[in-house]
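Entry type: protein chain
Record version: 2
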Amino acid sequence: MSSTTDKIKGAANEAAGNIKQSVGKVTGNEKLQAEGKAQEVEGKTQRAVGGAKDGVKNAADAVKSKL
């Protein structure tokens, strides 16, 4: 997956997780709240992976330009 794809999917998972948490709070559904929190964390991780991929690519590009 590209870094952009990781970032987009991560943001979508974060948003969906936040919605699940909110619905869980409103309805008193602790399981839905927990699922939402897990999905939010997964999204943050995906976004971090996308950022790391960008960093690696930028570092590799910098090395190539110096050769």
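Comment: Residues 3-66 form one domain.
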